[in-house]
Write a structure and sequence with these properties.
Elements: E1 6-13, H1 21-34, E2 42-44, H2 55-59, H3 69-81, E3 84-86, E4 90-93, E5 99-106, E6 112-117, E7 133-134, E8 140-143, E9 148-151, H4 160-168, E10 173-178, E11 181-183, H5 188-209, E12 212-217, E13 219-223, E14 226-229, E15 233-235, E16 241-244, E17 250-257, H6 258-267
Parallel strand pairs: 1-2, 2-3, 5-7, 9-10, 10-12
Antiparallel strand pairs: 1-17, 3-5, 4-5, 5-6, 8-9, 11-14, 12-15, 13-14, 15-16
Helix pairs in contact: 1-3
Length: about 270
Amino acid sequence: MSINTQAKILTIQFNPKIGDKMHNCNRVGEFISDNSKEGLDLVIIPEFFSTGIDDNSFLNSPEEEKKSPTLLYLSELARQFSANIICGTVIEKDAEGKLFNTSYALDRKGSIVGKYRKIHLYNYLGGNEGRKIKPGTSPAVVQFDFACVGMSVCFDIRYPLLYKTLIKMGAEIIVSPSAWCNLASISKEEMMDFINTWRAFNIARGAENLVYFITSNLVGKTYPNLYSIGNSMVINPLGKILANAQNKECAVFQKLDLALVRKLKRQYPVYNID
């Protein structure tokens, strides 16, 4: 691992065009290009970024890992900009034809160095993610060239024991590509409560695990009756909000001080405490 303790990350937040993978991949490429001047150690992309939240779009066009057009495109971006990338999620079809909501990790050469199949699928209050998609079973941590990164996806954020496992596995940064949304028809007060809960989850997952916690969320009306709340965040290990994308399409560039994580892990070994 590099002795340089400064890490430059980019978390992307946007509203994908339903079912148009090439358009959405190109948007990601534009965000990375526009924010690459200082160099990038890690880029995080939202869940369902290539298809949007639409059953027909993502279930009817699953991708095989070795032939995935989405991964091939992102691999080229990783090489072009010499950036590690957390590839949001794609619907992966395995050799047996089973479907998983999978987040891939690419290194700076564009090689797949890790993947995480979402464990906690959203099957509540009208959600039917698990209707055809299988849940994953294994937590995942990736040793990149600059830091150890734990992987999670969206609804996982409600399950703190997963994150305890990730820090036991050595995570210094934990990422969460997300498509956190609610019914567009709820009141402004209800939506604000919903957003505040999301923000609280972000702060708690960072502070309780003494890691940098980074979310990359969709934003805006992402389906006829759904509204994605944005608020992609970067939280430091003390629970401080370093960045919040609020409710606009943007990419947030943030520098992290990994020395802080490593110092706190020595002082407060929470990963050893049950």
